[in-house]
Amino acid sequence: MSTMMKYEDKEFKVVGTRPLRPDGVDKVTGRARFGADYSLPGQLIGKVLRSPHAHARIKSIDTSKALALPGVKAVVTRDDFADMPVEYAAAGELVINFHDVTRNVMAREKALYDGHPVAAVAATSEAIAREALGLIKVEYEVLPHVIDVVEAMRPGAPLLHEEQYTQGVTPRPDRPSNVAKRVEFSLGDVGEGFRQADLVIEREFNTKPVHQGYIEPQACLANTTEDGQVELWTSTQGHFVFRAQCAKLLQMDVSKIRVTPTEIGGGFGGKTTVYNEPLAIALSRKSRRPVKMVMSREDVFRATGPTSGANVRVKMGCTRDGRITAAEAELKYQAGAFAGSSVMQASMCAFTRYDLENAQVVGNDVTVNRPKVAAYRAPGAPISVFGVESVIDEMAKKIGIDPIEFRLRNAAREGTQTYYGPRLGSIGYIETLEKARAHPHYSAPLGPNQGRGVATGFWFNIGNETSAAVNVNEDGTVALALGTVDVAGGSRAAMAMMVAEELGVDCDKVRPTIGDTSTLGYNFVTAGSRGTFASGMASVLAAREAIEKMCQRVAQIREVPVGDVIWKDGQAGPANGAARQFAPMSLAEIAKVAGKTGGSIAGHAEINAQGAGPGFGTHIVDVEVDKQTGLIKILRYTVLQDVGKAIHPAYVEGQLQGGAVQGIGWALNEEYVYGDDGVLQNPGFLDYRVPVCSDVPFIDTVIVEVPNPNHPYGVRGCGEVPIIAPMAAIANAVESAIGIRLCEQPMSPPRVLKAIGEAVAGNLKD
Amino acid sequence: MARVSLSSNLAPYTGGETKLVLQIANVRQLFQALGERYPDLRPQLDAELAVAIDGEVYQDALLQRIEGDSEVFLFPKIGGG
After folding, report:
1. What is A429-455+613-765's CATH topology?
2. Pick from A427, A715, A347, A618: which is nearest to B55 by CA?
3. Radius of gyration for the alpha carbons in chain B, expressed in angstroms and rounded
4. Please, which residues 613-672 of chain A have a Cβ atom closer than 8 Å to chain B?
5. Is A41 on the interface with B (CB under 8 A)?
6. CA distance B80 to chain A (A)
7. What is the pTM of this model?
8. Which fold has domain B2-76?
C-alpha cells in the first residue's frame, strides 16, 4: 500500500520524552552481539585475496596449491559467480547495477582498484586461511591507472571500462569514456542572471574521498545446508536488501535465504550494499560448513565504499542589496571503479536552500581506480555545499550584509520552485536561520585569530517500503517487530514510543525488536533519514490495526455494536452517543481474555511510505587558527535543525551532534592518500585520522519543529542534514579568523600553512 | 489533462522535450505514456525516477492517482546514507 498519513496536532504523553533506549543496557554491559560476535559449531574462517594493483587484467588464477593445503575447505573465484546483465535496483543512496555488483564482490576481467577481491578461501583457522591466500597464483597484466577525477576525464586517460559510453549527452559519444554519466539541471537563464548581478564570484573547490568510519568493520556468518537453505547473520543497514542482492548474485530463490541483522556498530550509508556476504555463502555452499568473514580495518579502507572525492566549480552573482541573481555549478565526482556516484543528489542539493530564478548545475559521474563509492550521510551534498556555502559567505561579506541575513533574503520557503523539479512543501529553513541569528552563540565575542562561520544544509529525506507488526502479549505488554535496522541511532526507542502513544500504555511495556527477513514483509534499507519516518508510520498503522481489533473484541465481549466502542487512554470504552454504557476494558484486560475470546490480537502494516518532509539545518562554528602550526581548533559549535518532530529528543540531539562531528573530521583531517602506484597509503585509523573527543567541543543543538504534514507525528527525519554544513561553516570561520579562504579539503595543518604562505607571498608581491 | 514537467536532466532522453500534457489517471499510466513517447527514457522510468504530484513527492508508487488537472514533475529518485 502506498501510504501517506496526515499530521495530527495533539498533546503527547510519551512522544517528546526521553526514556532509556531498549538496547542501552546490552550495549553498555557488552552483551550486545555485533557481526563478529556470532559463531556456529564447525565454522570456517573466510579470507579474501585482494588485488595489489590499481588496474590490471586478470590473465589467470591458479588455486590448486591453496586447495591442497590441509585445513582449506573451499576456494572461490570469478568462476563461482555468474556474469550478470545490466540490471538496476535500489540500494540506499543510489541505484546499483548487478552487472557491476558481481564484478565488485569478485573481480572478473580486470582488477580495478587496490584491494579488489580476486579470490576467497575458507579454512579451519584464520592462520591457514591466510597461508592459503599466499598460495593462490594470480597472473596479472598491469595496466595504467587513474585515480584523480579531473585526470580521469581527460582524453587519453587510462580507461576502466571499454564498454562505458557517457550517458546523458546527445548525440551518443562515439568512443568510450571514464565519464559514466552527465546530468544537468537548469532553471531560468543563468547568463541573464549574471548580467543582472552587481557582484559575481567564481571559485574552484577540491575534496578527497573520506570513509564513513564506522567503528565495526563488516562481519558476517553464513550457513548453507545440503538442501540449499541459507542462514546469514550480518552487520547491515538493510537485511532485506542484502537478501535480495545475495539471491540475485548467487542465482537463488529469495525464500531460501534468511538474513538476521546483528547489532550494528555504525553504517552511515556504508553498509547498504554487500561485500563479503555472497562470498561467505558461496564458500559455505562449497564446503557445507558455516563460514565466518570479518573484515580487517585495512580491508574496510581498501575495499568498501568511501564517499566521492570531487572537483567543484561554483559561480554565483548577486545584487548590491543581497539578492542572488544567478547560480551555476559544475561537479566532477569520483564514482570509484564502477559508475554510480552521488553526483545526482549533490547536484540537486547544491542550491536548494535558496529561492532562485536562474540556476544551472552540471554533474559528472566519473569512474577511477579506487573502491566503488558508497553512500555516506546526505550522499554527495556536503561536497557541493562546501563550494556553494563558501561562495555565499564571500558574497555576503563583500557586499557587507550579515551572512545569516543574506541567506534569509534568499531563503527557500514553502512553494519555492526547485531547479530540479517540484516545488517545496512545508519546510522550516527560515526558522533555523532566525533561531541561529537569535542564538547567544552568534553574538558571543571572539578573540585574536578566532573567527565565526555559518553554513546551511538541505536533504530531501525519503520513505519507501516498510513493514511492522504489533503483537499484544497475554500479560498486556506489547511486542513490536520492526523491519528497519536500528543503525545505533535509537530508532527502536522512537518506534516503541509512537506505539505506546497510540496504545495509551507506558513506553516500557512495548518491547521493540528487529525481525529477521522471515518475520515481516520487505523493508528497504535504513538510510536517507527514513527509519523513524517510515517505520514510525508503519508502527502507528500496525498499532491502530491492533486497536481496531481490540475494539471489535470488546464489542463482542460487552455485546454492543462496534461503533459504540472507542479507544481512549489505553482502554476500549463507550463512545460518545453509545446506545448504552459499559465498563471499559484496558489493554491488559483485553489481552488477558484474548485467548478465550477469539485468539491473540495483533496488528501489522506493510506500506510504501510517501510524503517525506525535507530537512534544513543551520550551523554556527567558532574556530581559532594557529598561524605557526596551521592547526584549526574548533572552539564552539551549534547545530540548529528542523526535524519536524523529535520523538525522542536525546536521540535526535545525538544525530545532530554525530553528523556535526563527522563533518568536522571531513573538514579538518580525513583523506585517502594514494601513492603514485595507485596503492592506498593510509588504510588505518592511525594514518586516517577521525576526530576524537579531545578534538571537538560539546556540540550544542537546537531542535526546530515545523511538523511534516504527511506524518501522524510530524516526523521529517534528521540523520542526513547535520553532516552537510560543517565543511563550509568551518571554511567560512577560518576566513573570518585569518582572511584566507580555504577551498581544499581537508583543511589540515600542512594545507593551512601552505595557504598562509601563499597569501603572504601574494601580499609581498603586491 | 495532467500538466507534466520533466526535470531538465531528462532532456537528453526525450529529444529536449520537458513539458507535455497527458491524459493519465495514475503513475503507471504516466510511465507507460512516457515510455511509449520516449523509448530512451524507459530504462530510467522503472528504477530511477520519482514523481511529484501537486507538490507531494512519491517514489515507487505506480498506483498513485493523478487527477485530471494535476501538476506533475518527474525527477531523480532520492536515497540517502
Report:
1. Aldehyde Oxidoreductase; domain 4 (3.30.365)
2. A427
3. 12
4. none
5. no
6. 3
7. 0.97
8. Ubiquitin-like (UB roll) (3.10.20)
